[in-house]
Amino acid sequence: MDAETAEALALLRRPRSIRDRCGQILAAGEAGGLRNFEVAPAGLAHAVDRVVDEIRLTYPDLDIPYHSRWRHFVVADEDRWNGLAAALQGDAAERLRARFDLAVVSVLLDAGAGSRWAYRDPRSGGLVGRSEGLALASLEMFAAGLFSSDPATPLRIDAAALSSLSEADLAAGFQVAPDNALEGMAGRAALLRRLGDAVAARPDLFGSPGRVGNLADRLAATGTVAAADILAALLDGLSPIWPGRLTLGGQGLGDVWRHPAARGPDPTDGLVPFHKLTQWLTYSLVEPLEEAGVEVTGLDDLTGLAEYRNGGLFIDTGVLVPRDPALCVEPQAVDSEAVVEWRALTVALLDRLAVGVREKLGLTPAALPLAKVLQGGTWTAGRRIAQDLRADGGPPIRIVSDGTVF
After folding, report:
1. Is 406 helix (H, G, I), strand (E, B) or coil?
2. Which residues neighbour 319 within 8 Å (Cβ) at sequence distance 6 or greater?
3. Alpha helices in 31-153 (DSSP H)
4. 10, 26, 353, 368: most buried, per Cβ within 10 A?
């Protein structure tokens, strides 16, 4: 790979580049230059109020955790992860590896489930849908050893088990049936098989034989790690797993898409990076690292997440106005200009909204980092307003999902 291509890949993996390119699209929107959305800055105050109300309702003491996958393992105030972790209490390093194992696979399985699917909790018998249902299902599959090639050590996720995972086994774990269809089922299974191959191919990141959780040893080695470096390691190690995406120098770019308002040096001109799932995974790895005594620095270098709950909040509060009403009627492809535009505007607006939320609550960025604004927060407020406005609680714009982006 030549030096120009290597630098372009590095540029597209930096959180600063996400902010810069999304900021360009917001600037174009504020100047009235976007084809798909009008930007109404006056509506931001309404969005701030909705988020502040949500925070005060859910976290009245303002003790807000990070926005991460670990929140979804709490069912009816019971932390299901803790029940599994009891078997690992005597080995802190193995506990950290197991948390990495679970977080990585659970996040990668978290693309939108659709409104027709739900998971029946084997403990309570209740039905759990969307992200929470996907999380609970992945936790139960992890506990059953589905992702381990060693029956004696089920609480691990290794390359050998992932590479041979069948769609039928994964569908059974998700309780998929004709009347309980999960969107992107084939894509999810294929993604995990590619993950297995990627883990096996990178012993420098995942050890030998390859195991997802071995990445923890590398990141925790010095006792301090920057959030941007966690993201970079994940983007590097996971780059081969993304299907049918843009490539550069033979490497998959992942969650990177084209938009005419995004400018940059060749060969990145016109490209907008988001890395939504990988950034959420980074947020989800911070908690285990900190619990293990590792200091994570620069958390706010990461951006907000370009997904439909955060993005829906801005449409539903009037900050973003679709120019064509059909945008909220017909399902949209993830690589369409409209969806890329919506996601970019969401990332840029989340930074502005965070400032307003902190001002209203009288908190500093250190006390209320973006990861807590998202949790407190924008994601929950986006879901609640969607439930108020639409019978199925879905987003204002529906995305055609392949099970690997949202």
Report:
1. coil
2. 39, 40, 41, 43, 44, 46, 47, 349
3. 44-58, 80-85, 92-108, 130-143
4. 353
Please state, in angstroms and as integers, the Cα–Cα distance from residue 104 to each residue in 198, 224, 227, 398, following that order. 13, 20, 16, 26
Who wins on pLDDT, 145 or 242? 145
Q: Tell me the C-alpha distance between 166 and 399, whole Å.
A: 26
Q: 175 CB contacts (<8 Å, ≥6 apart)?
A: 119, 120, 137
- Six-digit token string for 372: 């807590």
Q: How many residues does the chain have?
A: 406
Q: Judging by beta carbons within 10 Å of its beta carbon (0-12, 13-18, 19+), is residue 143 exposed, middle or buried?
A: middle
Sign, Cα dihedral of 50, 406, 181, 127: negative
Q: How many angstroms separate the CA atoms of 308 and 302, rounded? A: 18
Residues 159/240, Cβ–Cβ less than 8 Å: no
Give which of 324, 348, 347 is closest to 397, Cα–Cα. 324
Q: Per-residue pLDDT tens for 29-80? A: 999 999 999 999 999 999 999 999 999 999 999 999 999 999 999 988 899 9
User: What is the spatial distance between Cα 21 and Cα 243, in angstroms, rounded to a whole number?
Assistant: 23
Residue 183 and residue 13: Cα distance in Å, rounded?
A: 28
What is the DSSP secondary structure assignment for residue 211, as one 8-state letter?
B
Nearest Cα neighbor of 371 from 307, 308, 300, 312 is 300
Q: Is the dihedral of CA 389, 393, 398, 404 positive or negative?
A: positive
Tokens representing residue 46 in the block? 């309404």
Q: Which of 367, 324, 250, 325 lies closest to 5 in space, CA to CA?
A: 250
Q: Report if pTM > 0.90.
A: yes
The full set of domain ranges for the chain reads 3-400
Crossing angle for the helix pair 15-30 and 337-361, to the nearest 10 degrees: 100
Q: How far apart are CA 114 and CA 219, in angstroms?
A: 34
